C-alpha cells in the first residue's frame, strides 16, 4: 500500500484543509481577545461628587476630554482662595475583556491581521515538515503554492494596515510623521548604497549580483518605505522598554510589569540587536570558524581550542535567531500594550504632583487617547515581528514555484525574490528596529527625550 503522501497532490490537499480548518476555528474562537484579556486600562471618573445625593455616586466612563453634561454647572469659587478638590484627581483601573476590546478603534483590523498571521505562519511551518515530491513538477504537487500565497498576502496585508494607521491624525504627533518621512528618505539613500554595492561587500553578508537595475531600484525604495513606516512603532517599543524595565526609577506599583514581563522586554531587545549584527561581516567573522572546510572525523583534533562554527551551521544559527526574534517580539505584544496604557498613568501621576494646583486636562486627554487607540498600538507592535516571520518563512521555501510564471520572473529574478531577498528583508526589518530603538533609548538616557 502506498503512503498517502506519495500522491502528487496530497501536500496541496493537506495545506488547503489545514488552512481552512484554522480559519474556521479562529472565526469561532476569539484568539486576539483572549490574548489581550485582563490588561489593565485606566479611566478618569466622570463625576465624583454628583449634585444629586440619591444617585449612585462615582460614575466611571470613557468619554472625550472637554465633553460636559448640560445639567452640570461650574462651581463658583472665591478669588481669594482656591482649594484643589483631591477627589477630582482619582483614576480608576479596569480589566479589559472582549466587550471592551471590540469597542476600540481598529479592533476588527487587528483581529483580522492577527488571525491571518497565525494561519499563514502555520502553513509555512507545515510546509517544512511535509515530504516533497521530487518526481513531479508544477505549482500544485508539493503544496508550495498555498504557503507562498498566504505569506505574500500576509506581507501585503500587514503593510497596508500599518500604512493606514500611520495616517491616523490623533494617533501620533505631527513631528513623528515628519520624522518618519525623513527617516524613510535617509533609509532609501542608504539602501541604494547597499544594493548598488557602493558600500564594500565585506560590510554586509549579502550579494546582489542576481538583481538587475530595475530590481535594485525597487528593492531600495521598498527598504526606505519600510523604514519610514516602522519609525513610530520603534519609538513605541522604546517607550515600552523604558517604562517596563523602570529606567526612570520611579518605583510606582501602578506601572510595574512584573519579573516575567521585564525578562521578555530585556530578551526581545537584546536578541533584536544581536540578530541584526549577524549579517554584518566584522561581527560574523568572530563567530564563523573559517578553518572548518568539511565535516570529517580526522579534523576533530584540529578543532580543539578553536572558537566558532562552520559556515553551514552559522547560516542555520542566524536563521534560528531571526525566528526567535520575531516570535519573542510577538510574545511581548501583551507587555508592550500594557506599558502603552501605563504611559498614560505616568502622565496622570506627573501632572498630579507637578504643582499644588494641578491641571489634569492633558492627562485626561492622554488617558482617553491611549484607551481609544489601544488596538492601533497593537497593530504597530504586532506588524514588525509578523513581517519578520513572513519573510523568513518565504525564504525557507526551496521550490522555485514562481519559475512557472514567466511574466512575473521577467520583472525580478524568482530565485532572488523567494530566497535571498526575503531573507534580506527579514533582516532589514530587524535592523531598522534595533537601530531606531537603540537610538531612542540613548536619547532617553541623555535626557533629550522623556516620557510624559
Automatic annotation (TrEMBL):
Residues 54-80 are annotated as: Disordered. It comes from the Eukaryota. It is a multi-pass membrane protein. Keywords: Glycoprotein, Membrane, Transmembrane, Transmembrane helix. The chain crosses the membrane at residues 12-29, 112-130, 145-167, 179-202, 214-234, 255-280, 316-333, 373-394, 425-444. It is found in: Membrane. Pfam families: Tmemb_161AB. InterPro entries: Transmembrane_161A/B. One of its GO terms (cellular component) is membrane. Belongs to the TMEM161 family. This is Transmembrane protein. It comes from Mikania micrantha (bitter vine). The lineage of its organism: Eukaryota, Viridiplantae, Streptophyta, Embryophyta, Tracheophyta.
Amino acid at each position: 500500500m502506498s503512503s498517502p503522501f506519495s500522491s502528487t497532490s496530497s501536500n496541496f490537499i493537506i495545506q488547503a484543509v489545514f488552512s481552512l480548518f484554522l480559519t474556521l476555528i479562529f472565526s469561532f474562537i476569539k484568539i486576539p481577545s483572549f490574548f489581550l484579556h485582563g490588561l489593565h486600562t485606566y479611566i478618569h471618573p466622570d463625576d465624583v461628587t454628583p449634585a444629586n445625593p440619591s444617585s449612585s455616586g462615582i460614575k466611571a466612563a470613557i468619554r472625550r476630554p472637554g465633553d460636559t453634561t448640560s445639567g452640570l454647572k461650574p462651581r463658583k469659587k472665591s478669588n481669594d482662595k482656591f482649594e484643589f478638590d483631591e477627589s477630582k484627581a482619582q483614576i480608576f483601573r479596569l480589566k479589559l475583556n472582549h466587550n471592551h476590546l471590540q469597542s476600540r478603534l481598529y479592533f476588527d483590523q487587528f483581529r483580522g491581521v492577527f488571525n491571518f498571521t497565525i494561519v499563514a505562519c502555520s502553513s509555512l511551518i507545515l510546509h517544512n515538515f511535509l515530504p516533497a515530491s521530487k518526481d513531479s513538477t508544477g505549482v500544485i504537487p508539493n503544496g508550495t503554492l498555498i504557503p507562498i500565497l498566504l505569506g505574500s498576502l500576509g506581507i501585503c496585508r500587514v503593510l497596508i494596515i500599518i500604512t493606514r494607521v500611520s495616517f491616523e491624525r490623533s494617533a501620533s504627533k505631527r513631528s513623528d510623521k515628519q520624522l518618519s518621512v525623513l527617516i524613510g528618505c535617509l533609509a532609501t539613500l542608504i539602501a541604494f548604497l547597499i544594493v548598488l554595492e557602493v558600500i564594500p561587500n565585506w560590510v554586509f553578508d549579502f550579494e546582489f549580483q542576481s538583481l538587475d537595475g530595475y530590481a535594485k531600484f525597487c528593492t531600495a525604495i521598498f527598504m526606505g518605505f519600510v523604514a519610514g513606516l516602522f519609525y513610530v512603532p520603534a519609538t513605541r517599543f522604546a517607550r515600552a522598554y523604558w517604562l517596563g524595565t523602570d529606567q526612570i526609577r520611579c518605583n510606582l506599583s501602578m506601572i510595574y510589569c512584573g519579573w516575567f514581563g521585564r525578562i521578555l522586554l530585556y530578551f526581545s531587545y537584546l536578541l533584536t540587536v544581536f540578530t541584526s549584527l549577524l549579517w554584518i561581516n566584522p561581527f560574523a567573522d568572530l563567530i564563523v570558524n573559517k578553518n572548518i572546510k568539511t565535516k570529517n572525523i580526522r579534523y576533530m583534533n584540529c578543532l580543539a581550542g578553536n572558537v566558532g562554527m562552520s559556515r553551514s551551521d552559522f547560516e542555520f544559527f542566524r536563521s534560528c535567531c531571526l525566528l526567535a526574534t520575531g516570535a519573542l517580539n510577538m510574545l511581548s505584544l501583551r507587555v508592550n500594550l500594557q506599558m502603552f496604557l501605563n504611559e498614560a498613568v505616568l502622565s496622570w501621576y506627573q501632572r498630579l504632583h507637578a504643582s499644588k494646583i494641578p491641571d489634569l486636562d492633558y492627562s485626561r486627554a492622554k488617558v482617553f487617547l491611549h484607551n481609544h487607540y489601544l488596538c492601533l498600538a497593537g497593530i504597530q507592535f504586532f506588524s514588525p515581528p509578523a513581517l519578520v516571520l513572513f519573510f523568513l518563512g518565504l525564504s525557507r521555501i526551496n521550490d522555485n514555484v514562481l519559475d512557472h510564471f514567466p511574466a512575473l520572473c521577467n520583472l525580478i529574478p524568482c530565485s532572488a525574490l523567494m530566497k535571498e531577498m526575503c531573507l534580506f528583508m527579514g533582516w532589514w526589518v530587524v535592523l531598522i528596529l534595533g537601530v531606531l530603538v537603540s537610538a531612542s533609548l540613548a536619547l532617553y538616557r541623555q535626557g533629550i527625550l522623556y516620557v510624559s
